[in-house]
DNA sequence: CTGAAAGCGCTTACAG
DNA sequence: CTGAAAGCGCTTACAG
């Protein structure tokens, strides 16, 4: 029962102790190359018994791989986006570790490429995931110019770039349509930061739904860049003055602020104004009344990003063919 | 102007082209070992010109280092904790990359050690940072049993373990004292998840402040595990029925819910009830009225964690001696 | 089926 | 001050 330092074996030790060559040991482990059934089992057994784990760094050097991938996160994201990034991260980590890859995070600041360049110069990763595509981001252009494989999370117009995205446009269109069908006459839209692509997608969905049903959209029904309580309150005030009877919020944070503002003005939901959100959260679900909103499977989004990337890097992965989807959850706030 | 593949040099190439040995090149780069001024400059110049960057993985193998550190994040953290983790992450990444280290994230799920064991077995990191110490966490015990250096973010009673923490107890004590001095007669405490150490620290601060001023604390003034709107609303209701004239919330999320609940009941802040939070956020700052709260420098907390860890790993770092601190920001909600 | 050898791109005693 | 050589712990043609 002494606290003896457990010896950490190398492939050399194993070869010596077993009286075989390290080539053989390597083959038994990797499963590549021909090897006798008997020897393989002997090696595997020894490994199991002594809990040998190959040195990934050495393996990487020999194979010119790093077994790392990078997740590029914006440094400046707003509170409203936390749940999104956290879920992405979780999905990515899960599939990465399933392939014995690790994920290195790098927080990148707007158009400052230095962190990306550092990662690239140091050759510590085999591929990168760029989260939250900002319109006209330099990062994308830069990554394209490198040989490094990468996928972006978010909408992407460049057909040469691999991406995954939630169906924001479709979801927005569907929820808008539903609200119009339910009898909302004038539906205000409270949007987020206009430089984010997701804002644009949701906006388009809203427009298309109006077009489809032959409804007019007036400039003054659209309130963009609702990033704090003050902006939201102003928007709500103006919308009410204009007699809007429905408010569609682009995400849960905006929606929370919107609800707060309505409550302050003692405007009943849904009897005077129906409210819905294009991104769900617990606080909307548990609100009184519960708020209608769209649920995405963001963990899965992250997983798909990682799978796509691993595939580009030549890993074998059973990429899910089933497309990402969403659910519109109708709750009391739109009844 | 062709898109020629830029050759990626190795130390061997440089040695050959310069007619020196690779030992010399290595020395010129690392600055270790004696080397002639002239040769050093020749090498450095060549490197600069051809933008040579040493292969970190190879360097690592030779030095038995990985130049990675791991950040262990709980998989299940609540919305309320996002800003905290994000700021930590940012601080850690900043100092890590300053030392040419990268940070690998791993999301660990309660008492499931498998992810930690994987990291350890793969030897992909030189040290770990365990964020959010949960009371009696297995992770800590496990890490202690490994040789791997690690530091924890959060309070820590074990004197053998290195940790960094915000001064939650002190801050809680100070803010509580201030509220009592300002004339609050009965101060309710709305606390978070009781299994987190931070909850305990803040609770203690609240108690100590009462003791110091000779005030009694009644069981029924304490409301723990206020993790959703329902629980908070109940707590607020009960507190009001008991005639409390002050409410101290443990964090910004709890406080937001508390404010919402008060607003619904049309209880004016601060005239009927004074409200304060032990963790600040924009939404509290911009609330109407603005909410008194405590500001911590969490980015710096992350930095210090990383610095402490790097030091344990033998890196040279000018560790900041200045202790972490906090500011109590008195706003309208406690006037 | 198995192994000796070279190689991945660095570092570092050791000798000169 | 400089270099030849061994080594970090793996993989992988190549030969047998």
From TrEMBL, chains A, B:
The keyword Ribosomal protein does not apply. GO terms for molecular function: DNA binding. Keywords: DNA-binding, Transcription, Transcription regulation. It comes from the Bacteria. Residues 9-63 form the HTH lacI-type domain. CDD domains: HTH_LacI. InterPro entries: HTH_LacI (IPR000843), LacI/GalR-like_sensor (IPR046335), Lambda_DNA-bd_dom_sf (IPR010982), Peripla_BP_I (IPR028082). This is LacI family DNA-binding transcriptional regulator. It comes from Jingyaoa shaoxingensis.
């Amino acid at each position: 029962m002494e606290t003896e330092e457990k010896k950490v074996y190398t492939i050399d030790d194993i070869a010596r102790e077993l009286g075989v060559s390290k080539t053989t040991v390597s083959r038994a482990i990797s499963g590549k190359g021909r090897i006798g059934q008997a020897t393989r089992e002997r090696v595997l057994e020894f490994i199991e018994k002594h809990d040998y784990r190959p040195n990934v760094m050495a393996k990487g050097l020999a194979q010119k791989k790093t077994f790392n991938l990078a997740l590029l996160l914006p440094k400046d994201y707003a509170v409203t986006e936390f749940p999104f990034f956290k879920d992405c991260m979780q999905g990515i980590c899960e599939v990465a570790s399933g392939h014995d890859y690790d994920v290195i995070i790098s927080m990148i600041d707007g158009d400052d490429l230095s962190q990306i360049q550092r990662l690239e110069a140091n050759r510590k990763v085999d591929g990168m995931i760029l989260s939250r595509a900002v319109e006209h981001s330099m990062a994308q252009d830069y990554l394209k110019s490198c040989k490094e494989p990468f996928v972006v999370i978010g909408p992407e117009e460049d057909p040469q770039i691999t991406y995954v995205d939630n169906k924001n446009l479709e979801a927005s269109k569907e929820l808008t349509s539903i609200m119009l069908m339910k009898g909302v006459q004038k539906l205000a839209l409270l949007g987020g930061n206009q430089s984010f692509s997701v804002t644009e997608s949701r906006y388009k969905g809203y427009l298309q739904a109006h077009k489809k049903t032959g409804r007019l959209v007036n400039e003054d029904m659209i309130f963009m860049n609702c990033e704090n309580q003050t902006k939201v309150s102003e928007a709500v005030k103006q919308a009410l003055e204009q007699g809007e009877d429905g408010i569609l919020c682009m995400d849960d944070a905006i929606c929370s602020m919107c609800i707060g503002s309505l409550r302050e003005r003692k405007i009943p939901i849904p009897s005077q104004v129906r409210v819905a959100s294009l991104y769900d959260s617990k606080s909307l679900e548990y609100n009184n009344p519960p708020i209608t909103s769209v649920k995405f499977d963001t963990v899965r989004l992250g997983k798909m990003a990682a799978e796509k990337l691993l595939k580009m890097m030549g890993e074998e992965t059973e990429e899910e063919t089933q497309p990402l989807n969403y659910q519109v959850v109708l709750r009391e706030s739109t009844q």
